[in-house]
Amino acid sequence: MDTNLFEENPFLHEVARRLLKAREQGQLLLQNGDSGFASAPSNIALLKYWGKKNGLRQIPVNSSLSLSLGNFRSVTCVSVRGRFFPLKNGHPDNAGARPEFTVSLNGREEVMPAKMEKFLRNILSIYAPDIALHVLSQNNFPTACGVASSASGYAALAGAVADLLNLERFLDDTELALWISEWSRLGSGSATRSSVMPNKSTKISSSVSRFVAWELCENADSRAETLPLSRTFECVAHSKFQKLRHCLLVLDSSPKATGSSEGHELAQTSVLQSLRLAQYPRRYTSMLGALGSGDFGKVAETSETDAFEMHAVMATGAVPLQYMTSLTSAALKTFIEERNRSSAEMFWTLDAGPNPHFLFDAEAASVLAGVFAKLGRDDRFKNARVLLPCREVPQELIVGLGPLEKLGFRIDSMTSEPMLENCDLLTASQILCR
Ligand code: PMV
Question: Domains along the chain?
Answer without folding.
Answer: 3-432 (3.30.230.10)
